[in-house]
Predict the 3D structure of the following.
Amino acid sequence: MTATVTPTGIVHLVDRTPQVSGTDMVAALVPPPQFADATFESYRADDAHPSQQEAKDALVAFSGGFVESGAKRGLFRRAPKAPDRKPGMYLDGGFGVGKTHLLAAIYHAMPARRKYFGSFIEYTALVGALGYQQTVQLFRGADLLCIDEFELDDPGDTMVMTRLLGELVASGTKLAATSNTPPNALGEGRFAAQDFLREISAMSASFETLRIDGVDFRQRAVDGHAVVLTAEEYESRVAAVAESGIASDDAFADLVAHLASVHPSRYIRLIDGLAEIGLRDVTVLTDQSAALRFVAFVDRAYDAQIPVRATGAPLDTVFGEEMLGGGYRKKYLRAVSRLIALTHS
């Protein structure tokens, strides 16, 4: 038997130019490794926030499973069928309250022959790679479509996703989505949402919205700031990780510039195989397009649970006050929450 050799060493992400085919994109439409085994049973609702248990029970019913039988915890009864339930469930809530865990639990629990799980950007990228009609044909007849981090950042995405979801719902597909923004508020502060009110309202009508309150679990065990290393600590850490795995090492400005040349749908391949991400000389971002690309990069790093080590400005400060006060505020705050967690990993 040939022993498997674990790759080691240091790589530079700016040297990577990953390519992803439509087939690769479809194959990747499953829950990320962090949620590969997520179940309703492993979701621990916070008693201080009853909306968490209420959402869990509603989603168990939506998935055709069992709900806890009141006071007799540990005993389960089949969820009552709700014939008037909408075809989609929309999980709206703050950061780190377990929305993605619940979304993955739906995926795993629903006895579906054809089901898909992906981030919003993965679905829009698939349309870009395959074309709208081919994407519709691909998903037509699917039992379930799970959409994580639902965001409408431009009118084009609004039109594409509302048309796609509308056609799939008409053919019997169930939908489940997460976001930090209620479906009737998508697009607010980003573009002239009133011009697309009809499309947004039509999409919203397909979803039953569940509000989930709570405290960001990522910050329950860490302090409120990202860890910053000295240059010496950083070099030592990267070298140590490189002895047993692959560590990346890039200047922050160089990586941010490189992200502009790689489609966000390929960011997951950009970090493929990494044991740790290293960023030198972090600075505050001033360009919104660059900031949004970095958010997408952070999302993929968080999905893959790859620790981040950095020098320079704390990573929780890379989005300036002007950005945090704009229409993408919730996206930036989600990224900050994830960056704090990854630097403490």
Observations:
- The first strand starts at residue 9 and ends at 11.
- The longest helix spans residues 155-170.
- The CA atoms of residues 34 and 241 lie 21 Å apart.
